[in-house]
Automatic annotation (TrEMBL):
Database matches in InterPro entries: Endoribo_LPSP/chorism_mut-like, RutC-like_sf
UniProt domain Endoribonuclease L-PSP/chorismate mutase-like: residue ranges: 7-140
Coiled coil regions in record: none
Protein name: Endoribonuclease L-PSP/chorismate mutase-like domain-containing protein
Entries under Gene3D superfamilies matching the protein: RutC-like
Length: 155
């Protein structure tokens, strides 16, 4: 039934933005067969970067989890573009990968990336369950705290 995912987004109070244009020499997603590989998304909201800083110093785990959620909304925006505007074409969220800009010794990367993972399940239900990685790093583009990428299977 067309519009099922859009209806779920509306129930959740989530508005999917126009997908951001790439900021460097890459494309926002690549389709290969029935898979869509979405480039890493940073926490852009209305064209403004949110969530600058290091987790464990400038931001708490809970704040960073919210930033990962913003990244996931931007991933869904790119997936929607790849599906010609029809998110009901998403068969499955295959994989989510999260990078967390954090201080040395920080070990709560999985809890941060849960912000993205939880959103995928909230939006797509069982189709949103995915494999995943969550890693810490010393820096991310533009100083953001979180960047998330994903692979979607589409019909």
């Amino acid at each position: 039934m067309a519009g099922t995912v859009d209806g779920r987004l509306k129930e959740l109070g989530i508005e999917i933005p126009t997908p951001a244009a790439p900021a460097a020499n890459y494309i926002p997603f690549v389709k290969s067969g029935n898979l869509v590989f979405v480039s890493g998304q940073i926490p852009l909201v209305a064209g403004k970067i949110e969530g600058i800083g290091k987790v464990g110093k400038d931001l708490t785990t809970e704040q960073a989890k919210g930033i990962a959620r913003i990244c996931a909304i931007n991933l869904i925006a790119q997936a929607k573009a790849a599906c010609d505007g029809d998110l009901d074409r998403v068969v499955r969220v295959v994989k989510v990968g999260g990078f967390v800009n954090c201080v040395d010794g920080y070990t709560e990367q999985p809890e941060v990336v849960n912000g993205a993972s939880d959103l995928m399940v909230d939006v797509f239900g069982d189709k949103g369950r995915h494999s995943r990685f969550a890693v810490g790093t010393n820096a991310l583009p533009r100083g953001v705290a979180v960047e998330v990428e994903a692979v979607f299977e589409i019909a």
